[in-house]
Design a protein that fits this description.
Layout (H helix, E strand, L loop, with lengths): L2 H23 L5 H30 L12 H4 L5
Helix pairs in contact: 1-2
Protein name: DUF2630 family protein
Organism: Nonomuraea rhodomycinica
InterPro entries: Uncharacterised_Rv0898c (IPR020311)
Amino acid sequence: MRDDEILSRISALVTEEHELRGKLSAGEVTSEEENARVKELEVALDQCWDLLRQRRARRGAGEDPDAANARPASEVEGYRQ
């Protein structure tokens, strides 16, 4: 996945999150449904940002950014902030 594709995916995930919060406010989804989906979106966003950082780091080091791979959610979610 190229950087622009990753950024488009991030944008789509953020848009979905905002729409979901609007649906919660409108009573179209329950808070449990909203919370579960938001958690999934947060994990997907973390994976996208991680992949983008990997690509940028590889590019900065003179390496091939296409060699970067998406890491599993269990690994990305275990990072300390």
